[in-house]
Specification:
alpha/beta, Rossmann fold, 7-stranded mixed β-sheet, 26% helix
Length: 140
C-alpha cells in the first residue's frame, strides 16, 4: 500500500502523472472518493503521464471515454449513473478491462462484482483539518 498526501490540485495532478508514466498495458485502477475529492484531477494526471493529448473530463453521462493519443489507450469509466453491472455488458467493458490499454474506473464499488482481482484500488480522501485542498491518496 502506498499513501500520497497532496495539498493542491496541481500536486494531485502530479501524483496521477507519475502513475500514468508507470502504467502498463492491462492495468486497471479503481478510483473511489466523495464528489469533489479529485478523481478527475488525478485521472487527468494519469492521462498526462500516458501522453494523452486530448482534454480529459469525467464521463458521467457517457459512462466511458476512450483516449487513443497516448502511448497506451486510456479507458476512463464513470459508473456513478449505472443501474446494474449488466449495463456494463452493453458498453463492451470486457474489451477495455482485458485489452491493451489502461482502465480507470470512477465509483468502481458500484460494479465490484465484475472488477478483476488484479485491479489496483485508489481511494482519495479529504481532511479539511489539514486544508481545503488536502487529499490523502491511498493506492492498494
Amino acid at each position: 500500500m502506498t499513501v500520497i498526501e497532496t495539498f493542491s490540485p496541481d500536486e494531485t495532478f502530479e501524483a496521477g502523472r507519475k502513475i500514468g508514466e508507470n502504467a502498463l498495458a492491462g492495468d486497471i485502477y479503481t478510483l473511489n472518493g466523495d464528489l469533489g475529492a479529485g478523481k478527475t484531477v488525478l485521472t487527468q494526471g494519469i492521462a498526462c503521464g500516458l501522453g494523452v493529448k486530448e482534454h480529459v473530463n469525467s464521463p458521467t453521462f457517457t459512462i466511458l471515454q476512450q483516449y487513443d493519443s497516448g502511448r497506451l489507450p486510456l479507458y476512463h469509466f464513470d459508473v456513478y449513473r449505472i443501474g446494474s453491472e449488466d449495463e456494463m455488458d452493453e458498453i463492451g467493458y470486457e474489451d477495455c478491462f482485458y485489452g491493451k490499454g489502461v482502465c480507470i474506473i470512477e465509483w468502481a464499488q458500484l460494479i465490484s462484482g465484475i472488477i478483476p482481482d488484479t485491479a489496483r484500488k485508489i481511494t482519495i480522501e479529504k481532511d479539511f483539518e489539514k486544508g481545503f485542498d488536502y487529499r490523502r491518496i491511498t493506492i492498494e
